[in-house]
């Protein structure tokens, strides 16, 4: 491309070939290159790919197919969503006349999600907002994990593979991957158990849950100027998170009126407990700061630190004494920036930075733990070359 003198000519040719490659896996080109030029192109492309990591926080999730997801702005329940790699198809979707829905959100699709039994999952995280000045947010320690019924593939764009919405996946339960649960849903604790089985016993408490807390807190901070909040009120939200294959949580969307219908046994079991705990926070805690808050934990911001941290505290038995399904994981208070005074983009950049730093901290701790566990003759070699996460 650097052989062209005219920039418009460069981009026209690039887009033609690029679209051809993306849409047609059997695309062929007639250009002939000498070996030295091929080496030069390879070296420059490799250099550019390394450099782009510095400027693109989402480099790791982008994948290679440039897939985008287009969905209605609200109340779609999984319907009307399209995945596409074709710019013209996306434009057509957004410009098509529709008296019911004419507003859409376009997001870069995460092509490298965490897979469980080869299937894509996402998380519904409930959180309670009891104040917006200052921001006071409570994260619920239990939620549900939604499965897609079919094995993940970027070659097949079928909704059973990519869209985890409960109403959609209900249609595919009978033809689901046999390892996927019958209702295509897990409790959080079942995902935590799975992570332990695959040797990732620390990622939930040290990365995933704190990362979700950090993201939600940052978004709420970014909306303080425009939020309409009345004193002595509260609101329950439902955030959807996708976990990447390196265990980083990405906030996909926030639902202002999350559905609590008992459409699965998991939701039917969780919702009464959730509603009971909302009363504990909004009534009991309001009167007594030492009152039991159930499974709600407050996101506690501190002054800005160069690295994010997590404070662990034993889970009081009294919180769980009346529950049929006790949870043995510790209470987690997410720690993040208290005063974010810059623009929205800077706030989101801070979130990405915090998540990266938290991941580095977790790897360092795991490295130290592994060093203590293994003392064989090849210890240094194994610890130096093993893929920790």
TrEMBL record:
**One Pfam entry name:** TTL
Q: What PROSITE patterns would the database entry show?
A: TTL
Q: Which GO terms describe its biological process?
A: cilium assembly; cilium movement
Q: Name one GO cellular component term.
A: microtubule cytoskeleton
- GO MF terms held by the record: ATP binding; protein-glycine ligase activity, initiating
Q: Where does the record place it?
A: Cytoplasm
Task: List the SUPFAM superfamilies.
Answer: Glutathione synthetase ATP-binding domain-like
Q: What is this protein called?
A: Tubulin glycylase 3A-like
| Species this protein is from | Aphis gossypii
The taxonomic lineage of its organism, from the top, reads: Eukaryota, Metazoa, Ecdysozoa, Arthropoda, Hexapoda
């Amino acid at each position: 491309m650097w052989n062209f003198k005219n920039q418009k000519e460069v981009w026209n040719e690039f887009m033609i070939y690029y679209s051809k490659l993306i849409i047609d896996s059997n695309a062929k080109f007639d250009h002939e290159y000498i070996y030295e030029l091929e080496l030069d192109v390879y070296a420059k492309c490799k250099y550019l790919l390394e450099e782009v990591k510095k400027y693109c926080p989402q480099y790791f999730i982008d994948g290679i197919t440039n897939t985008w997801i287009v969905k209605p702005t609200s109340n779609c329940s999984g319907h009307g969503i399209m995945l596409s790699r074709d710019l013209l198809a996306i434009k057509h979707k957004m410009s098509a006349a529709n008296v019911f829905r004419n507003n859409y959100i376009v997001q870069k699709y995460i092509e490298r999600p965490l897979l469980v039994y080869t299937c894509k999952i996402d998380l519904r995280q409930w959180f309670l907002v009891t104040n917006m000045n200052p921001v006071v947010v409570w994260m619920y320690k239990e939620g549900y994990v939604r499965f897609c019924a079919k094995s993940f593939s970027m070659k097949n764009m079928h909704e059973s593979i990519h869209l985890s919405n409960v109403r959609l996946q209900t249609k595919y339960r009978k033809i689901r991957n046999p390892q996927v649960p019958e209702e295509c849903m897990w409790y959080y604790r079942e995902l935590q158990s799975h992570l332990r089985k695959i040797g990732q016993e620390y990622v939930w408490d040290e990365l995933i849950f704190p990362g979700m807390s950090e993201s939600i807190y940052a978004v709420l901070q970014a909306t303080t100027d425009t939020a309409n909040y009345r004193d002595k009120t509260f609101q329950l939200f439902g955030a959807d998170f996708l976990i990447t294959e390196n265990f980083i949580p990405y906030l996909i969307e926030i639902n202002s009126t999350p559905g609590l219908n008992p459409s699965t046994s998991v939701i039917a079991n969780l919702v009464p407990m959730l509603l009971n705990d909302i009363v504990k926070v909004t009534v009991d805690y309001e009167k007594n700061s030492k009152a039991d808050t159930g499974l709600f934990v407050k996101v506690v911001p501190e002054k800005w630190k160069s690295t994010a941290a997590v404070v662990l505290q034993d889970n009081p038995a009294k919180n769980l004494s009346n529950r049929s399904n006790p949870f043995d994981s510790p209470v987690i208070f997410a720690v993040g920036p208290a005063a974010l005074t810059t623009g929205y983009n800077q706030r989101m950049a801070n979130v990405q930075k915090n998540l990266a730093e938290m991941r580095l901290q977790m790897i360092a701790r795991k490295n130290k733990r592994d060093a203590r566990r293994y003392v064989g003759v090849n210890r240094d070699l194994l610890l130096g070359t093993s893929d920790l996460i």
